[in-house]
Amino acid sequence: MSASPKKILYCRCAFAQVVPTEVKNQVLEKLTESEISFECVSDLCEMSARKDERLTHLLGDEEPVQIAACYPRAVRWLFHAAGVPFPEDDRVEVLNMREQDAETIVDKLLKDEN
Q1: How many Cα neighbours within 13 Å face the side chain of 27?
Q2: Burial of 108: CB neighbours in 10 Å, binned 0-12, 13-18, 19+
Q3: 15 pLDDT exceeds 50?
Q4: E strands in the chain
Q5: Looking at the predicted structure, is the pLDDT value of residue 85 above 50?
Q6: What integer is the mean pLDDT of 77-96?
Q7: Nearest-angstrom CA–CA distance, 45 and 13
């Protein structure tokens, strides 16, 4: 990801509860402490199931986006299932809170922000 402005999307995974609680809490805590702007959603799975129109706005422009959520393939499918095209280029990076530790995710999210 370049040093250009980016959007950060953080999924709380409130309903499926497949992301380790400790990881998602630490990531949210560090994002909040950093005072950078980010979008926090309660659950991307639920938004996809409801075909929430906010999903379109989350990826709707050309700015880079980092998504702290689940498996990248699952996140792509959630947008697809909601009818929202997922960019095929590298402007969207999905960080996997199910497999990566909080420190690794936070480092990537805050890179170029300090």
Answers
A1: 32
A2: middle
A3: yes
A4: 7-11, 39-41, 65-69, 92-96
A5: yes
A6: 93
A7: 8
Start-to-end CA distance of the chain, whole Å, equals 14
Write the pLDDT tens digit of every residue in 36-82: 999 999 999 999 999 999 999 888 778 899 999 999 999 999 999 99
Q: Where are the beta strands (DSSP E) in 6-114?
A: 7-11, 39-41, 65-69, 92-96
Torsion sign (Cα): 24, 25, 27, 32: positive
Quick check: 76 and 95 in contact, CB under 8 A?
A: no
**What is the residue whose two structure tokens read 């690794």?**
104
In this structure, the chain runs to a length of 114
Q: Distance between alpha carbon 51 and the CA centroid of its chain, in Å?
A: 17
Q: Which long-range contacts (CB under 8 A, 24 or more apart) does 75-79 make?
A: 75/44, 78/44, 78/45, 78/47, 78/48, 79/48, 79/55
What the block records as the tokens of 69 is 């959520």
Q: What distances in angstroms separate CA 15 from CA 11, 54, 75, one per listed residue?
A: 11, 18, 15
